[in-house]
Structure formats: C-alpha cells, structure tokens
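Two proteins, back to back. First:
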Amino acid sequence: MGHSFEGILPEHEAFIAKQPVFFVATAPLSPKGHVNVSPKGYDSFRIFSPTHVGYLDLTGSGSETSAHVLENGRITFMFMAIDGPPQIIRLYGTAHPLTPSHPEWQALLPAFPSYPGIRQIIMATIHKVTTTCGYGVPFLSFQKDRDTLERWAQAKGPEGISQYQHTKNQRSLDGLPTGVGENYP
C-alpha cells in the first residue's frame, strides 16, 4: 500500500540520489492535447529543500515540458528502483522554467554539472510525495550514461544549439509556446 507525504523526507532524498533515470510527466489543459512523459538521465536532478526541486533541461528534439508548465504549471516526477528493494516515488507539484535571462539563473546553475546544450532549468514546488511498492518493476542494470546527447551538442556548438532551438523547440506538439529560444551557454 502506498503512502503520502507533504514533502521529501531524508529517506526519499537518499533513494532519489541513487537512481540513474527519472521520468517527468506533464500535460496541456486541452483534452485533445498530448500527455508527455520524458525519461531523464545524467546527474541532472537536484533537491533544494523538502518542497523545492529542479532539473537541468538539455536541448532535445522537443520541449513539451516547458510548454506545459508555462501553460498550467502541473508536473509529476517519478523515480523507480532498478535494483535493490522495489520502490517507486512520485513527486507532484507545480513548475516553471528558468532561462539564462532569469534573475535566479546564475545562483542555481552552479548546483548542476556543466553539460553542453543546456536549455533551461525546470524548477518545481512539490505539494505531495507518494511512495508505492514497485513490485512490478523488473530488475535492470545501469551500465553508464549515454554520451550521444553531449557529443551532439558539442558538435553543434553554442550557435548551432541556438539555431536548433529556434527551429525545433519554439512550439510543443500541440502548438503551445515553449519559451525556449534564447542564446544559451
């Protein structure tokens, strides 16, 4: 049976820190809109307090999360045990994207590793944490992070990334604005 909490407990934080992958879920308000679930890797998730988290968003093929949280703020993060005792933790909250022009950018960016192709930081205020068993999740083995995204971003360079964001990341699948498109580091 699952349990609910108002914030992230130390044992939740320890579990989250061990997971090499997490999932981000968002949705537009339109019932005809596309629900988005994105797997995230690298060392990109940070817990700033029991109710405040953020992750480093790297340039990719779409920017659904940004569009959805700009429209309605809703976000869910999911972490699951890939080895050891089974467990799933979900963080429910409201989020907003921070771009390099945001006043908090310079203060928050050092909390994350430096990766090529940084697009934004998605910050979230968590209002509910749930834990469930995860009995149905298979054992998996983590070998290493893929370096494909890093190599792709390095090959494009800052100007190429900026151009890519202008042509590929301006709108969601449903045509919502993403707020992406500034010149990023």
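And the second protein:
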Amino acid sequence: MTDFTDALGAAAALVFGLDASLTEIVMLSLRVSLSAVAIAALIGLPTGALLALYRFRGRFFLVVSMNALMGLPPVVVGLIVYLLLSRAGPFGVFGLLFTPAAMIIAQVLLVTPIIAALTRQVIEDLWIEYEEQMRSLGAGPSRAMPALLWDGRFTLITAILAGFGRASAEVGAVMIVGGNIDHVTRVMTTSIALEVSKGNLALALGLGIILLVLSAGINGAAYIIQHRTKRWHA
C-alpha cells in the first residue's frame, strides 16, 4: 500500500509540476490523435452523408462493410499499415514507418469507419424526416446534404468525439507502426505499457491520470451535447 501511495504522490507531482518528459508525451499524443480525427472527419462525414442520401448498386454492401469496420482490431490495422509502409511495401519509398505520420495513418483507418457509419445513420434519419419538405422546395440530395449536415451538427460532434476517444486510447496499431521511439513516437498509451514493464509506476500513473481525465472529459462532453440536442429538439 505504501508503494502505491508513494507512486501516486510521485505521479501527481509529475502532472502538476508539468514534467518535461510527461508533457512531451502528452502533446505528441494529442497532435497525433487530433490530426487523425480531423482527417477522418473530412473523409467520414461526406462519405456517410453520401451513403445516406443516394441509392446505388452495391450500397448495401458498403453500409454493412462500414459498420463491420467499426470493430476492426487495432493490431490488424497496425499490421496492414506496417506492411504498406515497410521498405518492401508499396509506400516504403516515403520512409513513413516509425514516424508520427504512420501513427496518424493507422488511427485514421480506425476512426474513419466510426465517423462514417454514425454520420450515415444521423443523415438518413434526418432525410426521412425532411425529404418531402426539401423536395417540395426543389432541393435534391446534393443540395440537401449541407443543410442536413448542419442540422445534425451536434450529434455529429458526438460521433467525432467518439472517434477521438478511440484514437487517443489506442495502443496496438500505434505500437506496431510507431515503434514507441523515445522523443519521436512515444505516446501516452505506449508509454504506459513501457513504463509499467520497466517498473516506473510514477510516470505510468501520471500518464494514466491524464488519459482518464481526457476520456472522462470526452464522454462528459458527448453526454452534454446529446442532452442539449434532445432539449433543443423537444
């Protein structure tokens, strides 16, 4: 019990003292995850909206596949990205393996299906509700898309937050493609795993505290947005 208390005290000192190593790891984690979520949103929002508003051959297969990819194992994504970016892979010439860029790519592949699938459901529900009214005003799917995305913005923000939660807590894929290199690709999740194996519980607990606070903040923000959206539509 004494060892745990001492480690917790040391962790708190690192967090509130803004330890340089801890701050560097946290900032890299945020940079990687925020970049990945921004790219995933740019891809997932229009993709989900297109699948919601248009009917075409193969649409059902795409919708089912996208929903299935929401549960894609991170280590599989990491392996695929590793093979693509390795020297023997088709993109090895760019030298992206074991860099933050490779970690962003892996997280984009994990997060995009989540945002796209949730966006499709939100826009499809809104289209069912407003289709008759919009068509009467001469607005087809292409013209209705921006309006529907704006109308569902609060729910879509929740979807983006869900994607950020997945990205920030991911360890398998980023470990494979990033290599957990000190001062280069060491993020919170991989650092926690490494420091625990080394017995450095203070830094691991400090990073764990920040990760818990970040996770709680994301879930809290998502709940508040959902609650206010329900009140706004009531």
